[in-house]
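Hi all, posting the design record for the shared folder.

TITLE: backbone redesign
STEP: 1 of 1
STRUCTURE INPUT:
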């Protein structure tokens, strides 16, 4: 009996899973396995919300595998030692996996490969989480892209990404059924902060991912416009599903392409989403070529930026208590749902690095801990973009005015009211700057500033001037 292991990590799905597909087609005994190591001391170990998601996603995958006659084997410990040990125990002659493109995961893969080969076990690795391998998407001269538009154009001229694979016929479990570890035995699931209501917001797992995609296809005609509005559910909310590989970008790509062909009115929206999927690809391209980016600015002059690290300011931002409603709504959305709208991410991040002059890395760490879609490539790309220190970034001197942004993208204040219930009765005319509301209006809305809701932590105009002065110290030749 030819046995193989399938090492699952960032590909927690059955469809379009080349490692699982090849193993099932080439072996008559297949052991799907997930190894959990808390990676104490690892700078980018999974955060709280990601651990919650992962534990539920593993349960969902195990359920699907069991329905197909197999099961997910859970290992506690480092894959470098655990996988060769399991391969030996199971008599497996090969281990299959799909690549994870984070620098630490790639380094671990190399160690696993060496350990397995030393033990006489063959290895095969595939791409399941990107449209193309990041080392194949450089410029003609071999240099990486640093600007999105030429990256996008080059990707579009390469032709369509491969068609996604259907779920394979799973090889049923052949061996004796020894008791397997359960997800709860791994201690992955964290205790969540009291204000986090993740289970009410999300359905982790492949079925949840497919439902999110199907819902999106129904509303995608309006995506190009609605994607800017945090008060509207106008985006796909696929990010955590993509992060954990419950759906792959090839599946999303071809679903959108097929939908566009059938429904002309959806073309603009689908095209705009394809572009976002390519931004994700761009993030991985950058991370691959600049593995230090999660901690270091791409633009070296930013290493001299005079940040004013101050715990009190960072804390107020984290708690959604800056006194700027659109920023605070964004931060409370993150706390409660583990997700934040893209426009809100830009506003909240910009406020931290420009109005409060706190280092972007502190904000990126907070997002990393609280986002269910915390993704090393995308989070880094987003924070460096906002801070002006990354590839194709927004210039630092362009500073969002949170009041004007609030009025533009949340015109009725519905988003603010949803996440800041203390402002629920404030009229739309002053919901984005309650400190300017007449006393009688605030009183009628039941709000006492400084008590129910904070006064602004900084004044916009002086904060803007301070940010520009700080930037001037590094932008002079
Ligand atoms: P949609 O608009 O429906 O987009 C579909 C998919 O395209 C997303 O799921 C995502 O995979 C990709 N995508 C969309 N926008 C971007 C973008 N700007 N950059 C890269 N990929 C994108 N995204 C993450 O997945 N994880 C993160 O940790 C993350 N951190 C961010 C931090 C900051 C400061 C900023 C400004 C952006 C960050 N983003 C991150 C990008 C973006 O905000 C989210 O991908 C998006 O809001 C997810 O919602 P959605 O799935 O409904 O997006």
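Okay, here is what came back for every position:
SEQUENCE:
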């Amino acid at each position: 009996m030819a046995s193989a292991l399938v090492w699952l990590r960032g590909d927690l799905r059955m469809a379009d899973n080349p490692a699982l597909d090849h193993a099932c087609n080439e072996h008559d005994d297949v052991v799907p396995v997930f190894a959990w190591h808390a990676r104490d001391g690892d700078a980018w170990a999974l955060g709280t919300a990601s651990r919650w998601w992962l534990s539920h996603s593993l349960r969902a995958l195990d359920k699907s595998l069991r329905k197909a006659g197999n099961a997910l084997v859970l290992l506690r410990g480092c894959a470098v030692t655990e996988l060769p040990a399991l391969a030996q125990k199971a008599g497996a002659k090969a281990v299959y996996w799909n690549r994870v493109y984070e620098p630490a995961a790639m380094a671990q893969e190399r160690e696993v490969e060496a350990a397995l080969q030393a033990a006489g076990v063959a290895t095969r690795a595939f791409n399941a989480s990107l449209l193309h391998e990041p080392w194949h998407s450089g410029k003609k001269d071999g240099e990486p892209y640093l600007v999105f538009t030429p990256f996008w154009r080059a990707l579009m001229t390469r032709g369509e990404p491969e068609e996604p694979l259907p779920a394979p016929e799973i090889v049923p479990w052949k061996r004796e059924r020894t008791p397997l570890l359960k997800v709860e035995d791994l201690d992955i699931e964290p205790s969540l902060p009291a204000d986090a209501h993740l289970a009410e917001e999300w359905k982790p797992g492949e079925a949840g991912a497919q439902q999110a995609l199907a819902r999106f296809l129904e509303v995608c005609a309006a995506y190009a416009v609605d994607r800017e509005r945090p008060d509207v559910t106008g985006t796909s909310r696929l990010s955590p599903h993509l992060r954990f590989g419950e759906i792959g970008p090839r599946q999303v790509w071809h679903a959108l392409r097929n939908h566009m062909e059938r429904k002309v009115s959806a073309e603009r929206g689908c095209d705009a989403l394809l572009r976002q999927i390519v931004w994700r690809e761009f993030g991985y391209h950058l991370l691959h070529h600049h593995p230090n980016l999660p901690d270091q600015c791409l633009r070296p002059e930013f290493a001299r930026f005079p940040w004013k690290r101050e715990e009190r300011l960072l804390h107020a931002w984290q708690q959604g208590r800056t006194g700027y409603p659109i920023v605070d709504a964004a931060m409370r959305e993150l706390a409660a749902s583990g997700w934040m709208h893209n426009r809100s991410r830009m506003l909240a991040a910009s406020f931290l690095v420009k109005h409060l002059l706190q280092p972007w890395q502190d904000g990126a760490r907070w997002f990393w801990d609280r986002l269910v879609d915390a993704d090393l490539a995308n989070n880094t790309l987003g924070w460096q973009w906002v801070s002006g220190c990354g590839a194709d970034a927004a210039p630092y001197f362009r500073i969002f005015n949170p009041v004007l942004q609030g009025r533009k993208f949340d015109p009725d204040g519905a988003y603010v009211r949803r996440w800041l219930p203390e402002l629920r009765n404030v009229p739309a005319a002053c919901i984005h700057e309650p400190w300017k509301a007449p006393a009688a209006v605030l009183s009628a809305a039941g709000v006492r500033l400084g008590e129910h809701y904070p006064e602004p932590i900084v004044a916009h105009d002086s904060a803007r001037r301070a940010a520009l002065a700080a930037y001037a110290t590094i932008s002079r030749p």
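COMMENT: The pocket of flavin-adenine dinucleotide is lined by residues 227, 235-239, 242-243, 273, 276-277, 279-280, 283, 342, 345-346, 349, 367, 371, 373-375, 378-379, 381-383, 386 (CB under 6 Å).
Let me know if anyone wants the other runs.
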